[in-house]
Amino acid sequence: MWEIYKKEFLELVRDKRTLIFTVLLPTLIMPAIFGGVAFVMDKMNKKAQQEELTFIVQNQEAMPAVVEALKKQENFKLVSVDNINELSSEEIKQNIKDKAFKFALVLPVEGQALLKQGQQAEIELHFNNASLTNKIYQRVKSAIDDLNETQQKSLLAKFNLDEETLKGLTRPISIKRVNTADKREDTGEKIGWLLPYALMILILTGAMYPALDMGVGEKERGTLETLLLTPVSRTKIVFAKFFVIFTTGFLTVFLTLASLVIWSLVALNVFAVEAIKKLTEVIAFTDVLLVFTMLAPVAAIFASLLLCASIYAKNFKEAQNYMSPIMMFSIIPIVFSILPGVQLNSTWAWVPLTNVSLAIKEIVKGTVDYGMMGIIFLSTTILAGVLLYFCNLWFNREAVLFRS
């Protein structure tokens, strides 16, 4: 069996496609993608923050202080438009769409009078908020907040009130939030949903090509018959192929984690990235080992499932058609773990893949229940064993191996 394992594994290592999916993808391409996305998002946010904002103001004479406050802001530019006070909401919308200006403020005609009476004046801000990196509202709000503070001080002096009295009048009861979660739990809750999703997809991707090659690939090359003639039982052949697929899938996620750790240390020590520093402070090396342990039976599940599909397929094209639903039905349980309110308990601990996703999230948060981890590891290992047993039965059926 181990001779077959060595033979199959060496053949895969010599294949350039295996090196791409198993080595280059996790060690270089994935970190480059993550780093590139983070870099681009940072650049886009900075660009949005420094972008020149052209704007118009309707009824400028009603609240001149607002106009002056905006004009003083960096990269704000007031533009003139014909019949500005007669523009309807639809016309403003169309002008923004045509990029005549970035936003428009509609000031209430009685705005100044309302402020003098100590009442609230409502300003309309028209802008396109479809972009995720849009900073128009935040930048305009920052300018208006300064005016609000000035107006508040004026009102306090006018009505002979102090700030504490004002707080009592406007908000008699205040709620002070005290977060009982420590730094690690807070960070883990924010990033813990992404890690299992990415790692499991990598396992599936890393195991997919070897499974295709060692099942239907051998059928098309005509080497399967030769392998069956060797004095090795079919069960041992199945186990050899299974261990090769398991190795490549697990090796993919191992190299990914190792690469991310190395690149994180580089980013921390060379570039002094603050986010990486916070992450390394809360996640220990033992946590990484525990994540590996929980992923081992997942790799076994994917290896058995993919090998079953590859053995059953008549040709490479048919096998590829089976891969899409396998990936889809593998992703759905992982997505369940992302849903709000889904927490690791005695029920979810028995749901395949969802349980491991939730377990990894708990590991990252530092709220590990080792008893629950044991249940999850046991249930996932049992499922992997059942699938491997079925794969063995599949391989021992001539009608399956040589479908025409």
Automatic annotation (TrEMBL):
One of its GO terms (cellular component) is membrane. Keywords: Membrane, Transmembrane, Transmembrane helix. It is found in: Membrane. Its main location: membrane. It holds the Pfam family ABC2_membrane_3. It is a multi-pass membrane protein. The chain crosses the membrane at residues 20-41, 193-212, 242-268, 288-313, 325-350, 370-395. This is Sodium transport system permease protein. It comes from Pleionea mediterranea.
